[in-house]
Amino acid sequence: MLLSDTEQKPDIKPDANEKIMLIVRHEDKEIKIALKSNHAMQKLFEAAGKAFQMDYKTLKFYYNDKRLRPDDSVASMEMEDGDEISAFLEQLGGSSAL
Fold it and tell me: Which Gene3D superfamilies does this UniProt record tie to the protein (predicted)?
């Protein structure tokens, strides 16, 4: 199908101001957070920490088995409305038994 000069292709780029709803799960809790596609994940981290009543720096966040960084965005991670993010307590240290 050919488009005439007066017809335009549909805009398939996500609108930077469009919010999508993301689901964050931690243990047996689940929250929904709306985030614009160009906002950094830092905003989601802070909102999740507040909702789970803990310092967000004690959590690590994963999407599709990849750890999210604070400067990642919805657009850079190619997230869609309703996608799920897993939050886990970050464990530091540990030792091996001898």
Answer: Phosphatidylinositol 3-kinase Catalytic Subunit, Chain A, domain 1
In eight-state DSSP terms, residue 81 is T
Beta bridge partners of 87: 61
Number of domains in the chain: 1
Question: Which structure tokens are listed for 50?
Answer: 């507040």
Residue-number span of the structural domain to which 42 is assigned: 19-89
- Is-contact 87 30, C-beta < 8 A? no
Is 78 within a domain? Answer: yes
Distances (CA, A) of 57 to 40, 60, 85, 90, 91: 15, 8, 16, 8, 11
Q: Say if 10 falls within a structural domain.
A: no
* Chain segment 45-76, per-residue pLDDT in tens: 999 999 999 999 999 999 999 999 999 999 99
Residue 21 three-state SS: strand
